[in-house]
């Protein structure tokens, strides 16, 4: 039986404010690009309403704000596969020295 242990988690906010800004399509875009060892989950409000769609990548605690579905492939390729967060998309509140 093959069981892949997820080592990373992509949390995509699906609560009111983020949904109004298109978070459902962002979640879909991540689901269309599955990566081994990465679990994509819909979560409740991440406490950063108005800056959404918000995406949080764990365990490294990288936050992305105002994510659009078109940007998801860059996050998948460069961050989830390549290991380098996409600087231009980072949420400055929690990553003040980047982007
Ligand atoms: S609704 Fe997404 S951060 Fe609050």
Automatic annotation (TrEMBL):
Keyword Iron-sulfur (UniProt): yes
Q: Which residues form the signal peptide?
A: none
What InterPro entries does this protein's entry cite?
Thioredoxin-like_sf
Keyword tags: Iron, Iron-sulfur, Metal-binding
* Source species, domain of life: Bacteria
PANTHER family, per this entry?
NADH-QUINONE OXIDOREDUCTASE SUBUNIT F (PTHR43578:SF3)
* The protein's name: (2Fe-2S) ferredoxin domain-containing protein
Source organism of the structure: Roseofilum halophilum BLCC-M91
């Amino acid at each position: 039986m093959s069981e892949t242990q997820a080592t990373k988690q992509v949390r995509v906010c699906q609560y009111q404010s983020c949904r109004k800004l298109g978070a459902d399509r962002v979640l879909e875009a991540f689901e269309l690009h599955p990566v081994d060892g990465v679990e994509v989950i819909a979560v409740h409000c991440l406490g950063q309403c108005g800056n959404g769609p918000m995406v949080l990548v764990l365990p490294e605690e990288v936050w992305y704000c105002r994510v659009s579905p078109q940007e998801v492939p860059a996050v998948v390729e460069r961050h989830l596969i390549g290991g380098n967060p996409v600087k231009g998309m980072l949420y400055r509140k929690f990553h003040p020295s980047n982007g």
